[in-house]
Amino acid sequence: MIQMKDHIAKALSEAVGISSDDVKALFTQPPQPAMGDIAFPCFQLAKTLRKAPALIAGDLKENIDHRLANPSDPLAKVVDRVDAVGAYLNFFLRRDTFAEEVIRASILAGNRPGASEEGKGKTVIVEYSSPNIAKPFHVGHGFSTFLGEAIANLYEYAGYNVERFNHLGDYGTQFGKLIVAWKRWGNPEALKEAPISELTRIYVKFHDEVELLPDLEDEARQAFTRLEQGSEEEMTLWHQFRRVSLDEFNDTYERVNIHFDNMNGESFYAKMTSEVVDLLSEKRLLVESEGAQIVDLEDHGLNPCLILKNDGSTIYATRDIAAVLYRDRMWNFFRNIYVVGIPQINHFNQIFAVMEKLGMPNPERNVHVAFGTVRFADGVFSTRKGNIVLLDELLDAGVAHARAIVKESHPDLGDAEIDEIAERIGVGAVRYTYLASGRERDILFSWEDILDYEGDTAPYLLYTVTRCVSLLRKAEPFVLKRLEERGFEDAALLIGDDEQRVLKEIVLFPESLAAARAHYEPSMMLRRLMQLARAFNTFYHSTPILRTDDTALVVARLALVQAVERTLKAGLRIAGIEPVDRM
Which among 21, 83, 166, 178 is placed 20 to 30 Å from 422, CA to CA? Predict the structure, then answer.
């Protein structure tokens, strides 16, 4: 469709005297398919041409009609007809040419439809997941983890150099509490068996006991001070807690096929906070407030940003400022993206405002991508003190539900194959649910809904892929050979309404990638995939794809099937969902 748009833009450019790029910028889509494929509004031409927009549209129609009457005119190979509707000029594309162009583009793109080199030479840092050491990897981390991975994939697909950061919560006063709790109640054997469960147990116990023994808070502060000062005993325990926690986290990351380029946590940046204080002091941005040091952000409409507490210690805001400075120095990033929940909006607004006051070039390069919370419709899961919903438990539940469905549908399959299919479907269904509804909306998990093969779900998209694979598998060898040799030539036969609807959805996929990337919103891409899958299944049920005597038509329709398969698989993989060949 891109080349077809170029031809139309060139023709209009010659007729009205503005550049082809300016013409294309005005192109829009008619509100109804029956009104055409491309609409050109004439409002902006009224002043220069000194005519009413409707008269301009009428004149342009005459000009285009004259050209279409000449079969040798290149425009006649692209445009079937044109209508003037009020101030709009509506173009109806030649269906055969449109089909050829879409299928040719699909074949050339191969397994990477919509990929580009837009970001060549630019580095994007995406910080996501970021669990706290010694605490459970819960369903809230799932939101950041899956959303962050999808955003990283979107940028990578567009040619950017993507650095995946996992900013671990491995520093702060909570480690003083943990050290005190471990010395009093820790069980080394339990730590070996289930590290985070044991660390959570003693952390919860600390908070229970501190109500009876308030002096524990002072002990914890002293323990953290010794940790900051590099005390061997505290450092040894801290390293142990960090190591066993990462071992457990990495099991989950391996399961969902997510790997990070950088695991520097808060502790890494803590040693850089003196530079932050010095820079802020040099620029006379630090203000004393009740013994603490702050940056006044009233001119940004924000509360003050606390840099140093009244005891001289830093907080996580200081460390985040240090992280921005370090990352820009090391990577000269194009974007520094934080995938962190909605409650942290004020925090990041403060950090970015401080960076602006420090004179950081293009401070808008720092972006906070906020997201909502997770709820469960059936009430089975609940988050209470000491009773966190683990992400692995959620994934296990999804896989168990999927396994029951697969086993019932395919009683002939062996257990190993059922397990593999169920793992992909169950994990894919969970990931899709995190991504599909818009990141700032709260997520409501309902197994009946998210595993529905007919709903707006990952299983529906995965099943559509298996349908495409099955059709290509069943095709005769000579048909597949012709498909490989001249699939895009036979594609000119794809002129039916249902076929054209599928082709139009394929064309819109690259646009959905660009929109999803620009808005940090993978749901925009997934909605387009769902529209494509719906259109394809309508085509599948209404059209004899393999059951026709016209070999060229079979090849054309299989070329369409192949284009759908490639597009769906590419989009699913960007979302982190691995397709299956049978369900």
Answer: 166
